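User: Here's a structure from my thesis project, written as structure tokens. My advisor, Dr. K., wants to see whether a designed sequence matches the one we expressed. Can you design one independently, without my sequence as a hint?
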């Protein structure tokens, strides 16, 4: 049996290399009027009226560095600029060219940062209500795509509150996808998997690569999730199961997961580079629902994430696999003695956890208009905070903790600078754990 392990490790590495190979390399941009390459960067966007119709003939000006360009939106409402130097540029809308009865809802100019070979997007939502008109220069916001309700300064307003509330729901659901897998693995094995962030990154990068290969966003996302799930299965079969059978302590397993995390980060940089990778090169369309403006991709991401989380929750409650998983979480030795195939259940948990992380990576890449080799790493503390806040090893607790963290991250952005929004979530975690160390839904355990 021991002779098979080096072969298995070699096959696992070969699978990862094959997945990251040039066969799935990211294709050139599909921008409407600008194609990014090694010497060109693109700034682009789409402007629609308050009714959702394309707004044509709107003038825009680009300034920054040695560049000064002008253009106007086409019949489909799209605009684009091509630049030959990386850096920060300001894109401003000529309000005199807006359609009659239309006003800028938030800002009239945005500062966008672009790298050569990549695309930066800026959105300028319109409204037909003069009272909702914003205009003016852009606050240090936001090249994240669709959080456009930020007004100048950090003052409170109800429209901005509801915009941030919706963004908090979106963030919470995306965090829940990844933290749910993290919680399932911890509940069945006791392992705090520090490579979960890299599984998230892998899902987004694979989706970008498959998108360049198949050209269909839905199919690319599905393939990315399937490959991420397969990698989770291979991880447990080749790495974690042998280590568990050797009797390694949880501390040793955690250190192995940290090593795997660092290894995957270097693999990502080797195959995809260190720049921002976009899954969908087209400028995303937006929907305004009850005064909240998000991209269409954000609404789809929230809906699919909620369906996936609900499916996992129902599966844990009402299926044989769910009952077996809960039994292993309560007492692995008793579960094994009662005839449950613990290794098989744990392997399925790894598959489900990796698939959820891959799905989270796909949506993060779409919602935030790009990702890089360390996107999952930056979110890892949020995943652990959500799991710990809700209660270690409890799936429902992971979901509730994720929603709380997501809300805290986005809502505090109303009053505090954006750089501090993640810190506030961690401060909340510390306060709650001081009051209730086992988390919201965790159970007290006797030590010693």
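Assistant: Designed independently from the structure alone:
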């Amino acid at each position: 049996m021991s002779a098979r392990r080096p072969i298995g490790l070699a096959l696992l590495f070969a699978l990862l290399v094959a997945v990251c190979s040039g066969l799935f390399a990211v294709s050139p941009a599909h921008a409407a009027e600008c194609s990014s390459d090694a010497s060109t960067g693109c700034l682009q966007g789409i402007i629609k009226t308050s009714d959702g119709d394309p707004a044509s003939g709107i003038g825009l000006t680009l300034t920054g560095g040695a560049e000064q360009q002008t253009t106007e939106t086409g019949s489909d409402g799209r605009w684009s600029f091509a630049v030959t130097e990386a850096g920060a540029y300001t894109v401003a809308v000529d309000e005199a060219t807006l359609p009659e009865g239309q006003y800028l809802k938030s800002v009239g100019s945005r500062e966008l940062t672009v790298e050569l070979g990549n695309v930066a997007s800026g959105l300028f939502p319109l409204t037909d209500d003069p009272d909702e008109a914003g205009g003016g220069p852009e606050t240090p916001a936001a090249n994240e795509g669709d959080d456009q309700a930020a007004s100048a300064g950090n003052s409170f307003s109800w429209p901005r509150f509801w915009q941030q509330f919706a963004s908090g729901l979106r963030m919470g659901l995306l965090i829940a996808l990844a933290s749910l897998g993290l919680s399932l693995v911890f509940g069945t094995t006791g392992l705090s998997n520090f490579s979960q962030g890299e599984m998230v990154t892998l899902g987004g990068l694979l989706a970008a690569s498959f998108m360049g290969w198949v050209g269909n966003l839905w199919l690319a996302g599905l393939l990315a999730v399937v490959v991420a799930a397969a990698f989770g299965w291979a991880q447990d079969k080749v790495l974690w199961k042998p280590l568990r059978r050797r009797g390694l302590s949880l501390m040793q397993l955690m250190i192995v997961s940290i090593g795997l995390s660092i290894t995957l980060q270097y693999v990502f940089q080797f195959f995809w580079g260190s720049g921002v990778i976009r899954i969908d090169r087209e400028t995303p369309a937006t929907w305004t629902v009850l005064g909240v403006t998000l991209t269409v991709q954000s609404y789809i991401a929230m809906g699919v994430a909620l369906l996936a989380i609900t499916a996992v929750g129902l599966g844990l409650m009402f299926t044989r696999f769910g009952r077996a998983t809960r039994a292993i979480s309560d007492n692995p030795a008793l579960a094994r003695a009662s005839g449950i195939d613990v290794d098989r259940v744990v392997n399925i948990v790894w598959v489900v956890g990796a698939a959820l992380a891959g799905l989270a990576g796909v949506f993060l890449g779409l919602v935030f208009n790009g990702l890089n080799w360390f996107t999952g790493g930056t979110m890892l503390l949020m995943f652990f905070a959500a799991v710990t806040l809700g209660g270690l090893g409890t799936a429902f607790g992971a979901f509730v903790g994720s929603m709380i963290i997501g809300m805290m991250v986005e809502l505090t952005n109303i009053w505090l600078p954006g750089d501090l929004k993640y810190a506030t979530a961690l401060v909340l975690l510390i306060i709650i754990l001081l009051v209730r160390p086992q988390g919201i839904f965790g159970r007290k355990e006797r030590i010693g």
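When you compare it with your expressed construct, this may help: Residues 158-189 form the longest helix (32 residues).
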